[in-house]
Amino acid sequence: MTSPYLTRQLERWTRPNPHLFVRPDWRRFVPQDQDDHPLAFYENKYRPDQPRVPAGSREGGQWTADGAGSQPTAKPPINDPRIISDATPDDDWKPGAQYAQGPPRQPEEWGRVTASNQGKGHHFVPTAVVEALRISDEARRVFDKARTGPLNDPSANWWDNAHRQYNKAVHEELKSYIDKNSIAAERMTEAQARDFIKQLHKSENSYIRSFNLRAVRRHLRFLLLRIGRE
Amino acid sequence: MEDIDRIQDETWAQLHQAVIDTLAQYGTENAFGDGDYWINHDNYGWARIQLGIQNLNLYRPAIVDELRALLRGLPDWAITMAVDVVGKEKSWPLMGLTIRKHEIIDGLRRDILPDVFQTYHYADSRPGTGYD
Question: Which helix (H) or strand (E) holds A16?
Fold first, then answer.
């Protein structure tokens, strides 16, 4: 069972305004290639144009308020429509602040992935799609690593059948990418595979977008519950 | 926590392979709806294997019993068989079976499915939903 604290945090993590509560410097804690990490979904969805502190400084990559120069944790004005539309009046959470009970956790403990968890999660490019298009081994390795990590087991309908439609949508998207760029699938490079994943994260296809957002949210819930147990 | 993750990983892999082997006797797998069934090959860290079923013949009690037998010794695990017939995604409600070692949750809508389903009865089954 979760504590009231964790229940509250779960509500925050699954609300549609994550830029208010996901750590603005989350990129520091993810081991993968930073640009195609699933958390990038949130940035793409809500503030694709939000300025960042340039790389090279300790705050590099952190979000910064519009026109606020190098003040990475400055809050948007209270009449910002993003807050009016989503946040509750008592939402006084401050990006980057330490709210966990007990001693502060080290950054490397966030979402720690055990050896047995490394192969788990939702593949953004399903294996069946890779096989159907006879993708090169080089690109296949990239697609195999591109996954969410373990998901929280949701109290959702276990007979949901959305995944097949997701498979089909990704198949069409990858086929289109290959054709458009005149790529021979069996010679697809690692760089091309990475580029496709970035494109997939920005896809406007509703099946792809909603399925992936749901998977990412479930992964966040998994991480939060795991942190709460350890 | 590492032990829990490792046990889940090993159990999932074994059960997943057993389901692949079992269903291969009865049809062909296709992830895009062009076969008889689809197995979700992603391990999310859950104690279950998820199937999408396109060919309704796979709900024959004998096949379901065979799948259930794979859960012997795995009381916390489940195999879900979601009805996923191409072209019926929007017109049919979500329905299926959840198979566990000790019970089967039967959410197959006999009022929608072909008449032969009136004769399908599963041992230790009870009516339910995909939330049970």
Answer: none
Neighbours of B121 (CB within 10 A): 9
Is the separation of the CB atoms in A65 and A49 below 8 Å? no
Among A150, A151, A164, whose Cβ lies nearest the Cβ of B38?
Answer: A164
The whole-number pLDDT of residue B117 equals 96
What pLDDT sits at residue A95?
A: 40
Q: Write down the residue that tokens 């910002």 correspond to.
A: A80
In angstroms, the CA A30 to CA A22 distance is 13
Of A122, A128, A158, which has the smallest distance from its Cβ to B44's Cβ?
A122
What average pLDDT does this structure show over B11-35? 96
Q: Taking a C-beta distance cutoff of 8 angstroms, is the pair B100, B113 a contact?
A: no
Is residue B61 very low, low, confident or very high in pLDDT (cuts 50, 70, 90)?
A: very high
Using only C-alpha atoms, chain A has a radius of gyration, in whole angstroms, of 19
Q: Where are the domains of chain A?
A: 119-216
Other C-beta atoms within 10 Å of A125: how many? 25
The β-bridge relationship of strands B96-100 and B104-106 is antiparallel
Cβ–Cβ < 8 Å for A114, B2: yes
CA distance B30 to A132: 10
B30 to chain A: which residues are within 8 Å by CB?
A: 128
pLDDT by residue (tens digit) across A45-79?
A: 444 455 555 666 555 555 454 433 333 333 333 33
Report the SS3 class of residue B104: strand
* A155 close to B (CB below 8 A): yes
Contacts of A171 in chain B (CB under 8 A): 32
Give, rounded to a whole angstrom, the gap between the first and last alpha carbons of chain A. 13
Pairing verdict, β B48-53 and B37-39: antiparallel
Whether residue B55 lies within 8 A of chain A, CB to CB, comes out as no
Distance CA B55, CA B96 (A): 12
